[in-house]
C-alpha cells in the first residue's frame, strides 16, 4: 500500500513511506492536538477506515472536555479517504481527531528523514527472532498479536 501511494501520486517519490502508525479506535477514543514530529518528511498521509470522523486543525486549539476540542477548521475523513498533510497544515497548525462515534482505524504513512535514522540496523538474529515470535520483550512482556476474535470475518 505504501508504494502505491507514490505510484498513484498521492505522495511524491521523495516520500516513499518507510513507517506507519495504525490507530485502532473504540467508541469515544480520540487523538489529542499535536504536530507530527519533524524527524518525518513532509508530506505524509493518513488513510481512514470503518467510520467517518472529522480531523480538526488550528494553531491555538483548546480542550473543551474529554475528546472534545475547539479548532479553526474541521475536515471530514470519509471511509476509504486519504488525507495528505503538508506545509502549514503539517508544520504549524496542530491537528486532532475528536471522540469517534464508532470503531475506526486510521493508518498514517510517513518517511523518516535519512539524517535522523539510526546508523546501524538491528542484528539479523534479532530480526529472525521477531519473525519467529521468539523475541525477548524488555520488562518480560509478550510480543503483540491480534486474534481473529478481535476482528471477526466480514459478512459476504
From TrEMBL:
UniProt GO MF annotations: demethylase activity; dioxygenase activity; mRNA binding
Per its UniProt record, what Gene3D superfamilies does this chain match?
A: Alpha-ketoglutarate-dependent dioxygenase AlkB-like (2.60.120.590)
Q: Name one Pfam family in it.
A: 2OG-FeII_Oxy_2
Q: What is this protein called?
A: Putative alpha-ketoglutarate-dependent dioxygenase ABH5
Record family assignment: Belongs to the alkB family.
The signal peptide stretch is none
Q: Which PROSITE patterns does this UniProt record tie to the protein? A: FE2OG_OXY
The reply on keyword Oxidoreductase is yes
Q: Which UniProt keywords apply?
A: Dioxygenase, Oxidoreductase
Q: Which SUPFAM superfamilies match?
A: Clavaminate synthase-like
Keyword Flavoprotein attached: no
User: One biological-process term from Gene Ontology?
Assistant: mRNA catabolic process
